[in-house]
Amino acid sequence: MKKAPLFALTLVAASLSAQEETQDSLPPEPATLQQEDAMVEDTMEEEAVEQGPPAPQLDQVVPVADDPGEDDAADVTVDDSAPVTGPTFATEADELVYQYERYIGLMQEGVYDEADSVAKRVVELAISVQGPNSTDFAKALTNLAIVQHRTEQFDAAQQNFESAIEIIENNEDQLDEQLVNPLRGLGAAQLEAGRPDKAIQSFTRAVHVTHVNAGPHNLDQISILESMSESQLRVGNIDEAKHIQDRIYALNERAYADNALAMVPALMRRAEWQHRAGFINDQRTTLRRAIRILETSLGKDDMALVEPLTKLGQSYFYIDLSGTSNSIGTLATGETHFKRALRIASEDPNASWTMIADTSLALGDYYNFLDNAQQAHNVYHATWEDLSDGDEKLAYRRENMEQWVTLRENPFPQFVNTPSTTQLASDDDALSKGSITISYDVSERGRAENLSVIEAEPREFVSLHRRVQRQLRRRIYRPRYADGEPVATEDQVIVHTFYYSQADLEEARGNASGTGAP
Description:
The protein is mainly alpha-helical. It has helices at about 10-15, 30-40, 45-50, 90-110, 110-130, 135-150, 155-170, 180-190, 195-215, 220-235, 240-255, 265-275, 280-300, 305-315, 335-345, 355-370, 375-385, 390-400, 420-425, 460-475, 500-515; strands at about 405-410, 430-440, 450-455, 475-480, 480, 485, 490-500. Residues about 1-60 and about 70-85 have low confidence and may be disordered.
């Protein structure tokens, strides 16, 4: 008889207890912050050289929901005479179908806290209806883990993905295609929990399963390869990350050899990765190829050109960090691309007002990057006026202009000292989580000012705390507007979590002791 996995029967309790813990912390001495504020005065070019593009959010690695089963279900019955407390059900199987559909709806609406509760109920019902060893129960576990990933319960998500994988292996085999979804989810949770080394293993296995079931050239593997590339990037394996991106490119080239236009979405994704990895010149080459394809296929004034032209202009906000080629062009070069994108959007009668507003704001953002406050204000103010009538336009203005918007989000360090994949793999318990909480203001010109550390744990990592503050100062924002004018936004708070080893902590304590710091 096949055994139920260790976590299956204790699953709901485990998921409830896996919330992120809050630790007491002490801020560094105020004098340290004041000295650091005085030290950092960077020019735009120095900032671009040092910081690189931002790290991505990884929603794309979260798998889609699994259907709990293929059996036809009876209609859900509702007692109209009962108080409005929800429907009643003839059987638990009826409720299982009902709750699963609720879960799907809540996930689509982004109501994750309620989706979490519903997913737990689906798990309970799946145990009762299908049994703790069923593949349908594994799908319920996967769905619970998906919402736990969304709500950053990464430890609980990993447990539930692992349990789902074990059940499917017991019921089917280690190469069954139903393993792809939970393996992808497991890798995503491991990545966000600070274990990119484990994520690489999970993604690698998921890719292998797709090869066995759909062939080595299947396109379903591309999203997994993208996640694997990101994992390699996070452990500093730039060459391997680039190699994986080249595999993705080859797959797309093979699939769309006879349809260049269909290649454009793949080129845009490739350009986005090149941006994140610091291959800015390569990014520009990729965007130019996408632009040439669109011009050849659709004409030189087609609206499809607006996005790649805008991104090409934005690429000049950064300097190539790859060291593989000389920098081409300057920040001023981007203005041509922004203006062309805005002209195309403004002159096309089929262009939506949102496209025109997006493109206009992008031009204003360009002047903001140049630190040309007057030109930036001219464009922002004109856009504000264009958005001054109609509920939809006013809602857009509230979201995009009546609050500050991050334009360049320099990545904060994820590790005190970035470990190698080998170091991570040598000790499953090697890393602990720390945090730093900083208050700051966003000025009228869109820069972070008046930084102050509220709390930091452990407090010994003074060097990392300074790095976080330095990167925060280098961020660029679209300033908040009120009555058509830029205004400062005060008392903003950001909490950054990072990972460290016991050796890192002991070294920091030794350094603090040696310098006489507390």
